[in-house]
Amino acid sequence: MKLIKWSILSFFLMAVSCSFVEKQPFKIEKRMEENELTLLLKQDVEKSQGLTLAEFEPQEIKHEGEDTFVYFFFTKDNQLHEGLSYLTFKDNAWNIIRTETARSLLDMEITNFQMGGETAGDTKRTYYVMAGYCNNDKINEIKLTDFKNDLFVFKLNTDKRTFIQVNMNSTVGLKEIQGLDAAGKVIYRRGY
Fold first, then answer.
1. Nearest-CA neighbor of 87 among 38, 26, 23?
2. For residue 115, what is the DSSP state?
3. Cβ atoms within 10 Å of 144's Cβ, excluding its own
4. Which of 36, 42, 122, 160 is the most buried (most CB within 10 A)?
């Protein structure tokens, strides 16, 4: 009798524990896709820089149709570097079209990395990317103004200190960058 009770109890526990499993394949596939992209970019930077990177961290990933733009950090010679990459995802494979890197200027309150060009897809479009990092903890908001006088606003917090703006069908670069404090006062301004 005791054996029958334990068997019934075991069966019930297995049935209950198995019935509440919920699959979320989209999130898993997306994460795998971004892990693949990170590994590919890391290998590309290692090859172009002639080194093995202990640290490589994508900060911002922006998808524009089949075009993807990534702003990332890596360490070389104990100095922080930043970079931008333009990739396409076609036929279930990532293709790196262009990567630019430079040593990060940490004495700047807001770094600014820009890259422009033409897409590699069947329909050619121009693009212009502006990305950067805010080193000043008092800055809570960044405003970018391009040479068409379009304004782009980015909210920052303790966990998010980076930004990326991708302008498709544009070759217009950054005219001015502003950093605002919590009260909305401009405490940093740089023009180009």
1. 38
2. E
3. 20
4. 42
